[in-house]
Amino acid sequence: MAMLGSVLLPSPMVLASEGIKKVTTTSSSPIRPLKNCKTVDQLKMFHRSLAKQGLENDVSSITKLVARSCELGTRESLSFARELFDSKGNGESYGSRFMYNSLIRGYASSGLCEEALSLFLRMMVDGISPDKYTFPFGLSACAKSRANRDGIQIHGLIVKMDYAKDMFVQNSLLHFYAECGELDLARKVFDEMPQRNVVSWTSMICGYARRDLAKDAVDLFFEMIRSEDVRPNSFTMVCVVSACAKLEDLETGEKVYAFIRDSGIEVNDLMVSALVDMYMKCSAIDTAKQLFEQYGARNLDLCNAMASNYVRKGLTKEALGVLNLMMESGVRPDRISMLSAISSCSQMRNILWGKSCHGFVLRNGFQNWDNICNALIDMYMKCNRQDTAFKIFDRMSNKTVVTWNSIVAGYVDNGEVEAAWETFKIMPEKNIVSWNTIIGALVQESMFEEAIEVFRSMQSQEGVNADGVTMMSIASACGHLGALDLAKWMYYYIEKNGIELDVRLGTTLVDMFSRCGDPDSAMSIFDSLTNRDVSAWTAAIRAMAMSGNAKRAIELFNEMIEQGLQPDGVVFVGALTACSHGGLVQQGKEIFNSMEKVHGVSPQDVHYGCMVDLLGRAGLLEEALQLIKSMPMEPNDVIWNSLLSACRGQGNVEMAAYAAERIQVLAPERTGSYVLLSNVYASAGRWNDVAKVRLSMKEKGLRKPPGTSLVEIRGKTHEFTSGDESHPEMPRIEAMLDEISHLGHVPDLGNVLMDVDDQEKRFMLSRHSEKLAMAFGLISSKKGTTIRIVKNLRVCSDCHSFAKLASKVYNREIVLRDNNRFHFISQGKCSCNDFW
DNA sequence: TTAGGGTTAG
């Protein structure tokens, strides 16, 4: 805290230097030679000395003075040059070609591109034709200001005036096309050059590196060093290093660094920054730190590279530490440094430090830079200071897509999805980040179908292409919906569009396919993944566990350990769940006992929950209860619920009542426990107790959540709610249900938790959501296709046997996912062996 | 004469 304080509350040294303008020397020093003049005052003095020598109208002298003035490249020196240029000497304009060239170059290199281009135009109007020097300056101005049309016109002029064979002109054209994103045209210029120098190669390599074509940049670099007619210099190497950073390719990066050292290319400040950035992006943080320490904290750009990478990795304290170090070494943070600082505060949701940063920004005049405004808006939104965020937003004259995205993301962060959506709708321009933000928000809010809907409308937008982030959200939505057709289409989409299948996206896809009841696809994706981390293994273990293949799940778990990965708490949940579903009591116990002893992972309540579940399902109720009592932490309602549901399976009414009592104390709002308890009583025929439980629910204003089932037909999901007959196809669904009933299905009336007559019970059972979905699936899909149903609650045993019968009679595979696991039902048999 | 890294939002 103390360390960070000095970043945010500037030290006395910084305060003293702030706000004090540089004092310019006005002492009467002797007249310097022109090449030594470094300030406008010195130039003006030189100009006065010309007058004393009677040379104030001498074209040659004035031309040299203008050239020097332009070389300095400050706003003041450029306007002084322009003043001289506009004045007349001996009744004649000073506008020689050389002067035009000097000024155009000066304007272009200081970023005053409009001035440069308007002077280019005036030059021609004045009847002075551009030459081989004018064209590169003009094109440089076009490249910088993305004046694409002007650049193309200049190209025409170059051809017309026969300058197209000049290497410098060709290099400038190449650079211009690369900068405005026309890489193919740039490459055409490059390929057709009869001779190339280091600038030609560097411009082409850099063009690729800057346009997400880093691979091409690296390839071209290796081609360059093979060609041997030209050697790379530090300009080239900075580009190549940055390309390796973008590729996150450490191996090539190290080769490139070795090349730099071997060939004695100067490692300047810019190169060190590029190298540090490369090592950070490749996650070689220690190497980056070594370089950083070697070259010191006095280098502003280096500090910025380090800080921004720390921020990207979420290492906010380290980022602020670098900024702190800079200040201590007397290096003043610039606006780039402040972007990292503000972003750190935003990530930490630290409004106090964020405000300090804002203060620093204001004191140093950075507040008019769009990027700083965007970062501040993001910070204030994330810190829940929307008013301040909007004040900055309203004052911005140049709101970009990033500005709008910050607002949308801020709303999402605050859980205001509605406001995010409204903002998203009205924003003038949307990019992939905007779409990903809103899609991610919908998925987060469990609005899966809406998320997919938005994704579909995104695809009709020109210039917006889904990326890995989009696909992760959509995969998650598909998984929750259990929509297999959609999931398959998505996988195809990823392949077709060349979206990189990295380990994160891969893991999401494994999860998606396993949730959609397609463990084979899940495993084939898992097999194809390189660099599998613990999350990837967890997804595969879960896939096997959910599909009832407990043995394979445990094999995978062991393979993971053999490969030397350190298991975390999450993967143990997967492994224990597998044991529980497969009834592997002994293996479950062994894994549970190994957690702390072998792997140093202390079991959390969730792991105890898995064990209670495992023991309970295996009928070891007493042992499960003892385990609960031995827990080092207070058992939560979920654990008691596991016990309760085991009691239901075993018909242990007393222990069920005890567990239910505990749950009602710990989580009185938990409806499931009441339902389970009344279930236990109903199975035992204790209708009075059932009635008591129902009354107690009613008194507390609790209602059993309605059962709902989804069924996917030709890529569209249909939702059914228990007892709801509003579906337009209801008459046909009813006919289907009747047909199955007449085929010999004997309703298991014990599933009806109400004391009504048997006919009524039969009717209620026939309107269970999974039955409605099943019947609809049978009548609306082609013969032989698999019917996939996702239910929000547990599948009832009557529906389970109903599904088994239907699978046999109609020769259909039925995949039923409930809130706990999958049932793969085929030819009258279920993968769960009627034990779930 | 021409060429260079890092820069906020998911």
Automatic annotation (TrEMBL):
Domain of life: Eukaryota
Alphabetical keyword list: Repeat
GO biological process terms held by the UniProt record: RNA modification
Alphabetized InterPro entries for the sequence: DYW_dom, E2_motif, E_motif, PPR_At4g14850-like_plant, PPR_rpt, TPR-like_helical_dom_sf
Family annotation (Gene3D superfamilies): Tetratricopeptide repeat domain (1.25.40.10)
Residue ranges annotated for the DYW domain, each copy included: 744-836
PPR repeat positions: 96-130, 166-200, 299-333, 400-434, 533-567
MF annotations from Gene Ontology: mRNA binding; zinc ion binding
One Pfam family recorded for the sequence: Eplus_motif
Family statement drawn from the similarity comment of this UniProt entry: Belongs to the PPR family. PCMP-H subfamily.
Protein name: DYW domain-containing protein
